[in-house]
């Protein structure tokens, strides 16, 4: 019985430290729980899942803000207008962390709780929760909690649930101010009208449910868009009545058509670029004993610049002259669930000036071939002879679970090839070829 007490006597510092760490973890969690992102690319796709393989459900414009629900594989799960949940690539958005209550686990404390389509007791019933059910609260306002419900969102009355952490009951005013200031006119100017999703959608005198409503509309009512105020739209109906509707109960129309053409999938792609060799592994040598490792790095830098400018998430297996073993290179692509892995090398023949040209290597025809074809089609435009696509049993390809190719971009011990390999002009041409190849591949 004396044991715990005596243990505390001997190790009070350890216990206090453990408590501090415990409290610290919770504080961090509370602060990071609610995040708002602002779209920084001209237009981004919102997809049904965290990756390029998922269908596009809508698009968002530069300056638009969204609330983050969760994060996976460098993608953000976000809450959209129209009560939908979708995913955007994290590198195409700016992340503004704000401290407020949201995205918390809560429990139903009442014997049951109705889940409704909007924050009003007369809105459509979506379903019912039972006492003890655990839910994720995304947002709270005016006595209502927006929750994750069946891969969309719904609303329950806040007094029927208990949120696990103590926190302010409403989102701080600064959040609204922020979304207003980052939400420039250009982002919303493409919206011509909005269409109600639900029966009994209220037109209110101000941008908040605390304002009185003057009209209510059935589902599929088209309203003319005037302006945006935080997460509310100022609109005008067919009879000329103006007021505000909540953005999440309406669908902005004629918005997708306006922006659709400028979105490219390359901007959503995660590309791992692998500069061959490095550090003590110098690679092959030119006739004047220049190292392959230096030109693979310079070429990868040129490719990276080009792809980053297109909005892609570019990750390098090495970014300086350091030794990186073979094993971690494909492992990085696997870990990131990269959409493509491209390894850059230069060939070498037994005798100097014996061979010339570029080759694209693949390992798995089912996984790698379409990427190999798309890129090799473009490396054909390079000034060196294209030797085609070949099977290559390289570890960086063999251990790769992601679409992967290894490019041999010329023979380093050919004086003719080396004059290209070592020139910034050729490196830029390679970057253009890889960029165009990837753009075709992701089409
Ligand atoms: Zn090599």
From TrEMBL:
<feature type="domain" description="SH3b">
    <location>
        <begin position="189"/>
        <end position="253"/>
    </location>
</feature>
<dbReference type="InterPro" id="IPR003646">
    <property type="entry name" value="SH3-like_bac-type"/>
</dbReference>
<dbReference type="InterPro" id="IPR050695">
    <property type="entry name" value="N-acetylmuramoyl_amidase_3"/>
</dbReference>
<dbReference type="InterPro" id="IPR002508">
    <property type="entry name" value="MurNAc-LAA_cat"/>
</dbReference>
<dbReference type="Pfam" id="PF01520">
    <property type="entry name" value="Amidase_3"/>
</dbReference>
<protein>
    <submittedName>
        <fullName>N-acetylmuramoyl-L-alanine amidase</fullName>
    </submittedName>
</protein>
<feature type="domain" description="SH3b">
    <location>
        <begin position="103"/>
        <end position="165"/>
    </location>
</feature>
<dbReference type="Pfam" id="PF08239">
    <property type="entry name" value="SH3_3"/>
</dbReference>
<keyword id="KW-0961">Cell wall biogenesis/degradation</keyword>
<feature type="domain" description="SH3b">
    <location>
        <begin position="32"/>
        <end position="96"/>
    </location>
</feature>
<keyword id="KW-0378">Hydrolase</keyword>
<dbReference type="InterPro" id="IPR017293">
    <property type="entry name" value="N-acetylmuramoyl-L-ala_amidase"/>
</dbReference>
<feature type="region of interest" description="Disordered">
    <location>
        <begin position="167"/>
        <end position="190"/>
    </location>
</feature>
<feature type="compositionally biased region" description="Low complexity">
    <location>
        <begin position="174"/>
        <end position="190"/>
    </location>
</feature>
